Amino acid sequence: MSEFLEKYGPVALIAGGSEGVGAAYASMLAERGLDLVLVARSADKLEALRSELAQQYPDRRITTIAADLTALGTPELLAERTAGLEIGMLIYNAGANWRNADFLDSDMAYASQLTALNAITPMTLCHHFGALMRERGRGGIILISSLAYMVGKPRTAIYSAAKAFSTTFGEAFWFEMKQHGVDVLTHALGSVDTPFIQRNHPHAYGKGDKPETVARAALESLGNGPVLRAGEGDQFYRVLSGMSRAEAVETMFRAGEMYAD
Ligand SMILES: NC(=O)c1ccc[n+]([C@@H]2O[C@H](COP(=O)([O-])OP(=O)(O)OC[C@H]3O[C@@H](n4cnc5c(N)ncnc54)[C@H](OP(=O)(O)O)[C@@H]3O)[C@@H](O)[C@H]2O)c1
Questions:
Q1: Which residue from 8, 102, 156, 185 has the least number of CB within 10 angstroms?
Q2: Is the CB of 152 under 6 A from ligand 1?
Q3: Ligand 1 pocket test: which of 69, 121, 194 has the largest number of ligand atoms within 8 Å of its C-beta?
Q4: Region of residue 228 (left: phi > 0; alpha: psi -120 to 50; beta: else)
């Protein structure tokens, strides 16, 4: 058995595992010998990926769960459906920003949904699966964040804040878990060419990293937490961190649509 499988196997749960970055993880982890539980809303996309991977890796057991990660009860459903499995790796990839608008022009239902998807549900799943990993004294958790966590981004305030929450949470969790043999890494992505970006921000598509590149980088850095920041765009953020907060927020606002969320 490989060292990777021994430490992070036998099963990986990927929340947001039907396409893009999540699908890249699914393929790489199947290649490394892990069985998979893939979660996303679209049953069709999950089934398409499951059948593609089953052909490529016939020895892997691949389970799909169609569920909305913003819905009340989904974390409990996932706990129930995985009760007989040893989840040694949790990847929380699902996350998005659907609207760019001033905070007061967004309704609170949208704010709650966005916060659930990007901050509350990942934390809830870390609580459940992290406890089981701590008991076993091994495992790995990757939380997908965004470089938008570094500065409050006007017209995207809720998303920026939710990613800051998950990144800060991930940092502290990394420290708490490392003494129990569990690796936690938060990966703050820059622009990535995913189907979501192609559908929702077509002007940004084609300029970003490839899903496979970012998934590989995180798997290679899993033992080197707490935070891995994307290379592309990082220069921009380094410049921002040298500015006063007011200048940084204003610069972010001016950069606007140049950077995907
Ligand atoms: N792409 C970028 O440029 C970029 C930049 C910075 C950060 N990020 C972060 O990277 C992660 C992936 O981003 P992406 O959307 O571009 O890539 P993706 O990996 O192509 O897709 C996101 C996955 O999450 C699932 N998902 C979305 N909302 C969900 C929900 N409510 N319940 C269950 N599953 C859900 C999607 O499937 P369904 O639609 O079928 O549910 C899909 O499988 C996110 O956390 C995002 O914030 C991306």
A1: 102
A2: no
A3: 194
A4: beta
Average pLDDT, the chain: 94
| Rounded-to-integer distance, Cα 218 and Cα 177, Å | 18
| Buried-state track 173-187, b at ≥16 Cβ within 10 A, e below 16 | bbeebeeeebbbbbb
Phi, psi at residue 210, to the nearest 5°? -90, 145
> For ligand 1, is residue 93 a contact (CB within 6 Å)?
yes
Among 69, 93, 112, 237, the mutation site with the greatest number of ligand 1 atoms within 8 A of its Cβ is 93
Please write the tens of the pLDDT for every residue from 116-152: 999 999 999 999 999 999 999 999 999 999 999 999 9
CA–CA separation, 170 and 127 (whole Å): 12
Question: pLDDT digit string (tens) for 192-212?
Answer: 999 998 998 888 899 899 999
Name the nearest CA neighbour of 177 among 142, 140, 149.
Answer: 140
